[in-house]
Write a structure and sequence with these properties.
Elements lengths: L1 H8 L2 H17 L9 E12 L2 E11 L5 H10 L3 H6 L3 E12 L1 H12 L3 E4 L4 E5 L3 E5 L2 E14 L2 E18 L4 E12 L3 H21 L1 E3 L1 H19 L5 E16 L2 E14 L2
Antiparallel strand pairs: 1-2, 2-3, 3-12, 4-5, 5-7, 6-7, 7-8, 8-9, 9-10, 11-12
Length: 277
Protein backbone atom coordinates (compact mmCIF):
# COMPACT_ATOMS: atom_id res chain seq x y z
CA UNK A 1 0.00 0.00 0.00
CA UNK A 2 1.75 3.18 -1.17
CA UNK A 3 1.08 5.33 1.91
CA UNK A 4 2.27 2.67 4.35
CA UNK A 5 5.25 1.81 2.15
CA UNK A 6 6.32 5.46 2.15
CA UNK A 7 5.94 5.74 5.93
CA UNK A 8 7.96 2.57 6.55
CA UNK A 9 10.70 3.58 4.12
CA UNK A 10 10.83 7.16 5.41
CA UNK A 11 12.80 8.37 8.41
CA UNK A 12 9.70 8.70 10.61
CA UNK A 13 10.19 5.34 12.36
CA UNK A 14 13.92 5.84 12.92
CA UNK A 15 13.27 9.36 14.24
CA UNK A 16 10.82 7.85 16.74
CA UNK A 17 13.50 5.38 17.82
CA UNK A 18 16.17 8.09 18.17
CA UNK A 19 13.90 10.24 20.34
CA UNK A 20 13.15 7.26 22.60
CA UNK A 21 16.86 6.41 23.01
CA UNK A 22 17.72 10.03 23.85
CA UNK A 23 14.85 10.16 26.32
CA UNK A 24 16.18 7.05 28.07
CA UNK A 25 19.72 8.38 28.07
CA UNK A 26 18.68 11.77 29.49
CA UNK A 27 17.13 10.65 32.74
CA UNK A 28 14.84 7.64 32.51
CA UNK A 29 17.44 5.01 33.52
CA UNK A 30 16.95 5.83 37.20
CA UNK A 31 13.49 4.29 36.94
CA UNK A 32 15.09 0.90 36.37
CA UNK A 33 15.79 0.90 40.11
CA UNK A 34 12.08 1.08 40.94
CA UNK A 35 9.25 -1.42 40.75
CA UNK A 36 7.03 0.91 38.74
CA UNK A 37 6.12 0.34 35.09
CA UNK A 38 8.46 2.48 33.04
CA UNK A 39 6.99 4.78 30.43
CA UNK A 40 10.03 6.16 28.66
CA UNK A 41 8.28 8.08 25.91
CA UNK A 42 4.86 9.65 25.29
CA UNK A 43 4.76 12.33 22.62
CA UNK A 44 3.08 13.37 19.39
CA UNK A 45 5.40 13.73 16.40
CA UNK A 46 4.27 15.78 13.36
CA UNK A 47 5.46 14.58 9.96
CA UNK A 48 5.07 15.48 6.29
CA UNK A 49 5.06 13.10 3.34
CA UNK A 50 4.56 14.29 -0.26
CA UNK A 51 2.99 17.53 0.94
CA UNK A 52 0.51 15.73 3.23
CA UNK A 53 0.70 16.17 6.99
CA UNK A 54 0.26 13.38 9.51
CA UNK A 55 0.98 12.89 13.18
CA UNK A 56 2.29 9.93 15.16
CA UNK A 57 1.17 9.49 18.77
CA UNK A 58 3.98 7.42 20.27
CA UNK A 59 4.28 5.58 23.57
CA UNK A 60 7.21 3.41 24.65
CA UNK A 61 7.56 1.17 27.70
CA UNK A 62 10.71 -0.41 29.09
CA UNK A 63 10.99 -3.63 31.07
CA UNK A 64 11.61 -2.91 34.77
CA UNK A 65 13.36 -4.71 37.61
CA UNK A 66 10.26 -6.56 38.78
CA UNK A 67 10.12 -8.31 35.39
CA UNK A 68 13.87 -8.94 35.13
CA UNK A 69 14.25 -11.61 37.84
CA UNK A 70 11.25 -13.46 36.40
CA UNK A 71 12.89 -13.71 32.99
CA UNK A 72 16.21 -14.73 34.56
CA UNK A 73 14.42 -17.49 36.45
CA UNK A 74 12.97 -18.83 33.19
CA UNK A 75 16.42 -18.71 31.59
CA UNK A 76 17.92 -20.54 34.56
CA UNK A 77 15.23 -23.23 34.67
CA UNK A 78 15.61 -23.83 30.95
CA UNK A 79 19.42 -23.96 31.33
CA UNK A 80 19.68 -21.01 28.94
CA UNK A 81 22.76 -19.58 30.65
CA UNK A 82 24.07 -17.96 27.48
CA UNK A 83 20.85 -16.00 27.03
CA UNK A 84 20.78 -15.10 30.73
CA UNK A 85 24.25 -13.58 30.47
CA UNK A 86 23.45 -11.79 27.22
CA UNK A 87 20.33 -10.17 28.68
CA UNK A 88 21.87 -9.25 32.03
CA UNK A 89 22.11 -5.54 31.15
CA UNK A 90 19.52 -5.38 28.39
CA UNK A 91 15.82 -4.55 28.74
CA UNK A 92 12.86 -5.26 26.53
CA UNK A 93 11.24 -2.21 24.97
CA UNK A 94 7.85 -2.02 23.27
CA UNK A 95 6.79 0.93 21.16
CA UNK A 96 3.26 1.72 20.00
CA UNK A 97 2.74 4.40 17.36
CA UNK A 98 -0.69 5.54 16.21
CA UNK A 99 -0.12 7.24 12.85
CA UNK A 100 -3.06 9.50 11.93
CA UNK A 101 -3.90 11.43 8.77
CA UNK A 102 -7.08 13.46 8.23
CA UNK A 103 -9.12 13.28 5.02
CA UNK A 104 -7.87 16.61 3.69
CA UNK A 105 -4.28 15.40 3.84
CA UNK A 106 -5.25 11.94 2.58
CA UNK A 107 -6.69 13.73 -0.48
CA UNK A 108 -3.41 15.58 -0.97
CA UNK A 109 -1.41 12.39 -0.62
CA UNK A 110 -3.56 10.28 -2.98
CA UNK A 111 -3.60 13.06 -5.57
CA UNK A 112 0.19 13.15 -5.45
CA UNK A 113 0.45 9.35 -5.75
CA UNK A 114 -2.23 8.52 -8.31
CA UNK A 115 -3.08 11.61 -10.35
CA UNK A 116 -1.99 11.82 -13.99
CA UNK A 117 -1.16 8.11 -14.12
CA UNK A 118 -3.18 5.70 -16.22
CA UNK A 119 -4.34 2.38 -14.78
CA UNK A 120 -5.75 -0.38 -16.99
CA UNK A 121 -8.33 -2.89 -15.79
CA UNK A 122 -10.44 -5.68 -17.34
CA UNK A 123 -7.57 -7.07 -19.42
CA UNK A 124 -6.59 -3.60 -20.62
CA UNK A 125 -10.04 -2.88 -22.00
CA UNK A 126 -10.63 0.13 -19.75
CA UNK A 127 -8.00 2.71 -18.85
CA UNK A 128 -8.50 5.16 -15.97
CA UNK A 129 -6.54 8.40 -15.64
CA UNK A 130 -7.33 10.04 -12.29
CA UNK A 131 -7.28 13.71 -11.38
CA UNK A 132 -7.49 15.31 -7.92
CA UNK A 133 -8.98 13.17 -5.15
CA UNK A 134 -11.37 14.42 -2.50
CA UNK A 135 -11.92 12.09 0.46
CA UNK A 136 -14.39 12.15 3.33
CA UNK A 137 -16.35 9.77 5.52
CA UNK A 138 -20.10 9.32 5.65
CA UNK A 139 -22.22 6.58 7.23
CA UNK A 140 -19.05 4.75 8.32
CA UNK A 141 -17.82 4.45 4.72
CA UNK A 142 -14.98 6.12 2.89
CA UNK A 143 -16.24 8.45 0.16
CA UNK A 144 -14.09 9.50 -2.78
CA UNK A 145 -14.86 12.08 -5.45
CA UNK A 146 -12.49 12.12 -8.40
CA UNK A 147 -12.65 13.40 -11.99
CA UNK A 148 -11.06 11.01 -14.45
CA UNK A 149 -10.43 10.31 -18.11
CA UNK A 150 -11.69 6.97 -19.44
CA UNK A 151 -10.27 5.10 -22.42
CA UNK A 152 -12.46 2.14 -23.40
CA UNK A 153 -11.61 -0.48 -26.01
CA UNK A 154 -14.11 -2.80 -27.70
CA UNK A 155 -12.83 -5.00 -30.53
CA UNK A 156 -11.41 -2.59 -33.12
CA UNK A 157 -13.04 0.51 -31.66
CA UNK A 158 -11.66 2.95 -29.09
CA UNK A 159 -13.70 5.40 -27.04
CA UNK A 160 -12.51 8.07 -24.67
CA UNK A 161 -13.91 10.90 -22.61
CA UNK A 162 -14.11 12.37 -19.14
CA UNK A 163 -16.30 11.47 -16.19
CA UNK A 164 -16.86 12.44 -12.58
CA UNK A 165 -16.87 9.50 -10.17
CA UNK A 166 -18.38 9.32 -6.71
CA UNK A 167 -17.24 6.12 -4.98
CA UNK A 168 -17.71 4.46 -1.60
CA UNK A 169 -15.99 1.58 0.17
CA UNK A 170 -14.53 0.17 3.37
CA UNK A 171 -10.93 -0.46 4.36
CA UNK A 172 -10.39 -3.87 5.98
CA UNK A 173 -7.10 -5.11 7.41
CA UNK A 174 -6.35 -8.70 8.45
CA UNK A 175 -3.27 -8.75 10.74
CA UNK A 176 -2.86 -12.51 10.23
CA UNK A 177 -2.64 -12.46 6.42
CA UNK A 178 -1.25 -8.88 6.48
CA UNK A 179 -3.56 -7.94 3.61
CA UNK A 180 -5.36 -4.61 3.31
CA UNK A 181 -8.52 -4.67 1.19
CA UNK A 182 -10.93 -2.06 -0.10
CA UNK A 183 -14.30 -3.83 0.11
CA UNK A 184 -17.98 -3.10 -0.52
CA UNK A 185 -17.07 -0.79 -3.40
CA UNK A 186 -19.85 1.09 -5.15
CA UNK A 187 -19.70 4.08 -7.45
CA UNK A 188 -21.67 6.47 -9.63
CA UNK A 189 -20.07 7.82 -12.81
CA UNK A 190 -21.47 10.79 -14.72
CA UNK A 191 -20.38 11.72 -18.23
CA UNK A 192 -21.66 13.83 -21.10
CA UNK A 193 -20.76 11.05 -23.57
CA UNK A 194 -23.47 8.49 -24.22
CA UNK A 195 -21.01 5.76 -25.20
CA UNK A 196 -19.17 6.04 -21.87
CA UNK A 197 -22.44 5.84 -19.98
CA UNK A 198 -23.24 2.66 -21.90
CA UNK A 199 -19.78 1.21 -21.20
CA UNK A 200 -20.28 1.91 -17.50
CA UNK A 201 -23.74 0.30 -17.55
CA UNK A 202 -22.52 -2.83 -19.33
CA UNK A 203 -19.33 -3.31 -17.34
CA UNK A 204 -20.42 -1.99 -13.94
CA UNK A 205 -20.19 -5.30 -12.03
CA UNK A 206 -17.01 -6.28 -13.88
CA UNK A 207 -15.44 -2.95 -12.94
CA UNK A 208 -16.44 -3.44 -9.27
CA UNK A 209 -14.82 -6.89 -9.21
CA UNK A 210 -11.71 -5.59 -10.97
CA UNK A 211 -11.36 -2.69 -8.54
CA UNK A 212 -11.75 -4.95 -5.50
CA UNK A 213 -9.00 -7.18 -6.89
CA UNK A 214 -6.85 -4.18 -7.79
CA UNK A 215 -7.29 -2.56 -4.37
CA UNK A 216 -5.69 -5.35 -2.32
CA UNK A 217 -2.31 -4.82 -0.73
CA UNK A 218 -0.12 -7.49 0.86
CA UNK A 219 2.09 -5.53 3.24
CA UNK A 220 4.22 -8.44 4.49
CA UNK A 221 7.17 -7.50 2.25
CA UNK A 222 6.81 -3.83 3.14
CA UNK A 223 7.00 -4.62 6.86
CA UNK A 224 10.00 -6.92 6.32
CA UNK A 225 11.77 -4.27 4.22
CA UNK A 226 10.92 -1.62 6.82
CA UNK A 227 12.38 -3.80 9.59
CA UNK A 228 15.61 -4.40 7.65
CA UNK A 229 15.98 -0.66 7.02
CA UNK A 230 15.23 0.16 10.66
CA UNK A 231 17.82 -2.35 11.91
CA UNK A 232 20.49 -0.78 9.71
CA UNK A 233 19.64 2.73 10.87
CA UNK A 234 19.64 1.65 14.53
CA UNK A 235 23.16 0.19 14.13
CA UNK A 236 24.34 3.46 12.58
CA UNK A 237 22.78 5.47 15.40
CA UNK A 238 24.37 3.28 18.08
CA UNK A 239 27.77 4.45 16.85
CA UNK A 240 26.81 8.09 17.52
CA UNK A 241 25.74 7.78 21.17
CA UNK A 242 27.11 6.42 24.44
CA UNK A 243 25.73 4.69 27.58
CA UNK A 244 22.88 2.92 25.79
CA UNK A 245 22.45 0.96 22.57
CA UNK A 246 19.43 -0.64 20.97
CA UNK A 247 18.25 -3.36 18.67
CA UNK A 248 14.93 -3.83 16.88
CA UNK A 249 13.45 -7.29 16.42
CA UNK A 250 9.83 -6.83 15.34
CA UNK A 251 7.89 -4.28 13.28
CA UNK A 252 4.15 -4.90 12.89
CA UNK A 253 0.99 -3.21 11.65
CA UNK A 254 -1.49 -4.16 14.36
CA UNK A 255 -4.62 -2.47 13.03
CA UNK A 256 -5.97 0.04 10.53
CA UNK A 257 -9.11 2.12 11.07
CA UNK A 258 -11.26 4.64 9.26
CA UNK A 259 -12.48 7.24 11.76
CA UNK A 260 -14.78 10.26 11.34
CA UNK A 261 -11.77 12.60 11.27
CA UNK A 262 -9.36 10.47 9.24
CA UNK A 263 -7.45 7.19 9.02
CA UNK A 264 -5.33 5.68 11.79
CA UNK A 265 -2.71 2.93 11.64
CA UNK A 266 -1.39 1.27 14.78
CA UNK A 267 2.27 0.25 14.40
CA UNK A 268 4.20 -1.82 16.93
CA UNK A 269 7.97 -2.07 17.46
CA UNK A 270 9.63 -4.61 19.75
CA UNK A 271 13.30 -4.56 20.65
CA UNK A 272 15.88 -4.31 23.41
CA UNK A 273 17.79 -1.49 25.06
CA UNK A 274 21.24 -2.40 26.40
CA UNK A 275 23.17 -0.53 29.07
CA UNK A 276 26.74 -0.13 27.92
CA UNK A 277 29.18 -1.78 30.34
Amino acid sequence: MPALDRILSSDLIIEIWKKIILNIKDGKLVQLMTLKPIEVYDETIPYEIDGAELKADVQAHLENLIQKPIQRAFDFLSFDFKNMDKNLFSYKISVEANVCMDYKNMSIYLSHQFSNKQYWILDDRIGLLFSDFKLSMKNNQLEVIVPLRIDAKYKMLNYNGSADVFARGNIVYDPVSMIIKITDISYVATSDKFILRMVNLIYYQDIIQALEGFMQFDIRDELNDGLVLLKKEVLKYDEEISLVSGEVNVLTLNQLWLLPDGAKANLGIEGRIKLMS
